[in-house]
Automatic annotation (TrEMBL):
Organism: Lacibacter luteus
Domain CusB-like beta-barrel: 209-278
Protein origin, superkingdom: Bacteria
Keywords, comma-separated and alphabetical: Membrane, Transmembrane, Transmembrane helix
Domain Multidrug resistance protein MdtA-like barrel-sandwich hybrid: 79-201
Signal peptide region: none
Name of this protein: Efflux RND transporter periplasmic adaptor subunit
Phylogenetic placement of the source organism: Bacteria, Pseudomonadati, Bacteroidota, Chitinophagia, Chitinophagales
Amino acid sequence: MKKNSFVKIITGIVILAAAVASIAWVLKHNKAKNKAKTDVVAQAAGDVSVKTGTVENLALDLDFAVNGNFAPWAQMDFAAESSGRVVKLLADEGTYVKVGQTLAIVDAGVLNVDLESAQTVLDNAVRDQQRFENAFKTGGVTQQQLDQARLAVENAKARVAQSKIRVGDANVHATINGVVNKRYVEPGAYVTPGSKLFELVDVSKLKLAVTVSEGQVAQLKIGDTVQVKVSVFPDKNYRGRVTFIAAKADASLNFPVEIELASNPGNQLRAGMYGTAVFRFGNQTKSLVVPRTAFAGSVSSNQVFVVGSDNVARIRKVIAGRIMGDKVQILEGVNEGETVIISGQINLVDGSKVALIK
């Protein structure tokens, strides 16, 4: 029994020693691995991890398309110029009218009375002038009295002319060719100066009203030919011409542009329809571009970080051009093939050592 107990004790001691030796070896091995990792971290502690891109020389795609709505070539509201009752309406909604055509007849009784009164005054003034001229020949009146009589005739003529204009203005006449889009009155209605009577639109021509960005407007000029697509007629192509480019941007910093359609066969297109203007530019030359994310801060900062063969980041002043999606044109400041940092700039200063991330 004693011999067996001794053997067990020896065996336990051996097993314990082996376990201690194994643990010691593992600890030593782990220490070596940790030291190696620590040495690597210490070596890279001063480097900033970044991603990079390349300055490319690409042909810029300047073509673009913008949406808008068709507007009539001309639109005008007609209002009453004198008070009176509408005696007759000579145009209804949808009626095509021409310049000078009477749209409505307004009772101008008071104006007619005024015209008759003015005519009576003129007739009397003419008779007085004749008497003064005969009397002047015999010395019955002075030159001054004759001049006053002649002046009275001229004043009376002017009053008659004014009265005739007011009588003529009582009736409403079209001043543009077009279609009556709205009629605001009914026969028998009493109108006063300024009362709206008709809305006329000239759709013999149409113009597409669109807005373009700052970069796009720089490519346009009056007279440019534009392809126009219409959503309700997807199989048809129309041609237009740029007739107006705003000199000032609107509140959204876009520039209004108007495009006149060359033709509108069968008057199929109507004001208010939805259309797309397609601007195409030929002979598009190459230009240097960088990823949009290369800019430190924003594109307006005009600063990028360039990395050389020594893996040192240097800040570079550039001049940015057009923005085209995820690319930005560079007019000055970098060369083709140079490496720019596109991620990690927030941790950089000029002269920072960088570690490139694949």
